[in-house]
Amino acid sequence: MARQVSYTYKKQRKVINFSYDKHRDLYEAVAAAEGIDLTSFLAMEQQVTMTAKRGAAVKNYRQQEFARMGFADIVFVREEK
Predict the structure, then answer these.
(1) Pick from 41, 58, 61, 67: CA 20 to 30 A from residue 50's CA?
(2) Quick one: which of 15, 10, 8, 21 has its CA closest to 77?
């Protein structure tokens, strides 16, 4: 079953194919689709992971940084049957 990710980038709605073979999560997939280098983001995310007491801090960091980059509404597309 093919997965798809829907997202908004700079006020433009897009849908891309997603595979766990190529990307760790849907955030990395949308960044790769837009050609954004996540090297510094991933390093900082790792630091947040090591210092945070709760997993919510990492999720919050990820969402805020992607919003700052211009992304919004990053979700998996559900297939209707």
Answers:
(1) 67
(2) 15
Q: How far apart are CA 26 and CA 21, in angstroms?
A: 12
- CB atoms inside a 10 Å sphere around CB 21: 5
Contact yes or no for 47/30 (Cβ under 8 A): no
**CA 19-25-29 angle, 5° bins:** 65
| Residue 81 in tokens | 């049957």
Two tokens, residue 38: 């996540």
Output the tens digit of pLDDT for each of the chain's 81 residues. 578 999 999 999 999 999 999 999 999 999 999 999 999 999 999 999 999 888 899 999 999 999 999 999 999 998 766
C-alpha span between 42 and 37 (Å, rounded): 10
Confirm if 18 and 3 have CB atoms less than 8 A apart.
yes
